[in-house]
Amino acid sequence: MIPNGLKRKWTDGHGTINGWLSIGNAFSAEIMGQQGYDSITIDIQHGFLDYGDARSMLQALRASGVTPMTRVPWLEPGIIMKVLDAGAYGVICPMINTAEQAAALVDCMRYPPLGNRSFGPTRVNFTAGSDYASEANDNMLAFAMIETAEGVENVEAICATAGLDGIYVGPSDLTLGVTRGRLAPGFDREEPEMIEVIRKILRAAKTAGIRAGIHCGTPAYAARMIGWGFNMTTISGDTRLLAAAAAASIDEARRLIEQTRHEREGGEGEC
Questions:
Q1: Cα separation of 224 and 212, whole Å?
Q2: Which of 14, 46, 215, 262 is catalytic?
Q3: Among 17, 25, 32, 57, which one is most buried in terms of CB atoms within 10 A?
Q4: pLDDT digits (tens, 9 = 90+) for 162-180
Q5: With a threshold of 0.85, does the pTM exceed it?
Q6: Distance linking the first and last C-alpha atoms of the chain
Q7: Are the C-beta atoms of residues 202 and 228 closer than 8 Å to each other?
Q8: Would you give the distance in Å from CA 172 to the centre of its chain?
């Protein structure tokens, strides 16, 4: 089968950049897929989309060759197996708080004897190339999100779960959970207590020999996290990037219009 591009890049020692899709549209997914990301994750949990949207988005991503992933709504076997059958090469599962939950995630993603994934690769059997059944266990990525105080408390046991490929830090929920709502949610944490928690999670992943990913708001913070040792960073997402680009365009246009008006009025005054 077509090998997982992320695994190859990590083996070669490269940090990777992950895109994030929350808009349920195949065309916007296709556009994002062409921008040079190493992987792109379709967010079924919080994204404005459902499984039907995710199907067409996975199809739209195929031409770019980017590694397709999904964040599922919850630790539920049905949807996890279904997105894998649809063509996802990795699953990010939210709110993994215990080693038992991490093991349940792995179980959903591996065919026997390594798990209990049901066999029915409807689309991926065609898109991933031949020998999918025998090679899928080695290519599908299982990422457990660490984003609660309980998850942090159990992070070493979670990371030690057999078959788990990596952990993924969700800074917003992590901040809410660890500080009990004292700090507002958001990316790119700078508070010493949050930095300590993030470093603890990263250390646990490195000690266990698995990968670590984190959601970031800016390229600068993402580069910093790769420097710390994270293997994968997500930089913002389609909704925020669209809003930021539109706002910047409007601000620049209004600035230039105002500048032109002042120049015209100044010239008229000289007459």
A1: 14
A2: 46
A3: 57
A4: 999 999 999 999 999 999 9
A5: yes
A6: 75
A7: yes
A8: 14
Residue 67: phi and psi, rounded to 5, are -75, 120
Q: Are 212 and 232 in contact (CB under 8 A)?
A: yes
Which residues 6+ apart lie within 8 Å of 143 measured at CB? 90, 91, 92, 93, 165, 166, 167, 168, 211, 213
Cis peptide preceding 112, ω within 30 of 0:
no
> Residues near 176 by Cβ (< 8 Å), separated by ≥ 6?
183, 185
Give the other-Cβ count within 10 Å of 111's Cβ: 17
As a whole number of angstroms, the distance between CA 133 and CA 125 comes to: 8
Lookup: tokens for 229: 């040792």
Decide: 69 and 39 in contact? Cβ < 8 Å. yes
Alpha helices by DSSP H, listed for the chain, are 5-11, 26-33, 51-61, 77-86, 99-109, 124-127, 132-139, 149-153, 155-159, 171-178, 192-208, 219-228, 238-270
Please write the tens of the pLDDT for every residue from 87-140.
999 999 999 999 999 999 999 999 999 999 999 999 999 999 889 999 999 999
The two structure tokens encoding residue 163 = 């078959």
Separation CA 115–CA 105 (nearest Å): 9
Token pair, residue 61, equals 């991503």
pLDDT score, position 270: 58
Rounded distance, CA 186 to CA 120, Å? 38
Alpha-helical (H) ranges within 147-218 are 149-153, 155-159, 171-178, 192-208
Say which residue the tokens 């992933």 belong to. 69
